[in-house]
Design goal:
11 helices, 7-stranded mixed sheet, alpha+beta, globular, 378 residues
């Protein structure tokens, strides 16, 4: 079967790529699961954090090439996605920390909107079939062979695969292999937007939360890596909440900057990372005051960190296809008409809508370039 564009994976980025492509372009989205958009349904704890009102790419996203992001986000902004939803009668409201969330609080509305627009834009969707191999054939087209034995030919291929995390919903690392098969560099991948384990036993305050002023520190260098004021949740041997999810993203960017191997990075994390937390007494429960012996003179606690929780529990994957391998259209510099967008790329945002905005923006830029290329070749 011949197509102009084959899009691999029906996640947020893949579906939105199909929506933004020109209606007359023959296109298909291939999905590994029996249903599209499974991870879309899980976004925002099934309430759908669709974006954020306050986005500064250099501040809110983590990658080895932050300047690259400025071009992408200038072409498709949070205001653009808000306009898209408004045109589709999907009501979006602003909540805490400027996150934009569906007023209905139901992520099914988000997925239904995406699938409706995909269909209206004449984009085919094939589920329960997966890509085994991509190769370039003599006519300059790509041949895509799936697990069912089907063969597709396409002028352009867009890889919008998720990362390794949350594999209980069939996430996969195949997207990284697809890049490496074309000699495209992939940076080290790690779990992020996840809980972090502590060396201290916190069972006496398990499932207690408080709004705190937190510093994430490197004890070895006596350096504050990141700080934020937000609620934190204590459990038996780990801490959680949006503030910790952000720490998990920042930590890997910091470790990558130290040029450590994966084993060295894990050891460095365990030996040197900690949280210095100030818990205002007004925010502290009785159990927190008792356990940490807080009073008017002592409101600060110190927690030594041990490790990240597993990829199974992480909501996203840091690392991925190196941005230095892509042009500012999300196209491979080495392989014409091969694009990568969404989570498979080495870009991770903070929690609270930033990662879905990356999916929308990178998908739009991909589709925009394919549309222009198609028109120029007519």
């Amino acid at each position: 079967m011949k197509y102009d564009v084959v899009i691999i994976w029906a996640g947020a980025a893949g579906l939105f790529t199909g929506i933004c492509l020109d209606k007359n372009i023959k296109k298909i989205v291939l999905e590994k699961n029996d249903k599209p958009g499974i991870k879309v349904l899980l976004s925002g704890w099934e309430r759908a954090n669709v974006s954020n009102m306050d986005i500064e790419p250099m501040r809110d996203y983590f990658t080895q090439n932050k300047k690259f992001l400025l071009s992408i986000f200038s072409k498709y902004t949070n205001w653009d996605i808000m306009w898209f939803f408004a045109e589709n009668n999907v009501s979006v409201v602003e909540e805490d920390r400027s996150r934009l969330i569906l007023e209905s609080g139901d992520s099914k509305e988000l997925l239904a909107c995406l699938l409706h627009n995909l269909k209206q834009n004449n984009c085919d969707l094939k589920t329960w079939d997966w890509v085994e191999n991509i190769s370039q054939i003599d006519n300059g087209f790509y041949e895509i062979i799936t697990t069912s034995g089907k063969k597709y030919e396409a002028k352009s291929v867009v890889v919008s695969v998720w990362g390794k995390s949350f594999f209980q919903v069939w996430t996969t690392w195949d997207g990284y292999k697809m890049a490496e098969d074309f000699d495209i560099k992939v940076t080290e991948t790690h779990p992020c937007l996840c809980w972090v384990t502590t060396k201290q036993n916190l069972k006496d305050v398990s499932w207690v939360s408080a709004k705190v002023d937190m510093k994430f520190v490197d004890k070895k260098l006596d350096k504050t890596i990141y700080s934020e004021f937000w609620p934190i949740l204590f459990t038996h041997f780990w801490v959680s909440g949006p503030i910790i999810h952000n720490v998990s993203v920042v930590a890997w960017e910091y470790l990558n900057s130290l040029k450590l191997s994966e084993k060295e990075a894990e050891k460095y994390f365990c030996d040197n990372f900690a949280l210095d937390i100030n818990i205002p007494l007004d925010n502290a429960t009785k159990s927190l005051k008792k356990f940490f012996e807080l009073d008017e003179e002592k409101t600060e606690i110190h927690l030594d960190l041990h490790s990240f929780r597993s990829l199974k529990e992480a909501k996203a994957t840091s690392g991925g296809v190196d941005l230095n391998e892509l042009d500012n259209h999300m196209q491979s510099k080495k392989q014409l008409n091969l694009y990568f967008n969404g989570e498979v790329v080495d870009v991770t945002g903070k929690t609270w809508g930033f990662n879905l905005q990356w999916a929308w923006s990178s998908a739009f830029v991909t589709a925009e370039h394919i549309n222009k290329t198609k028109k120029n070749h007519k």
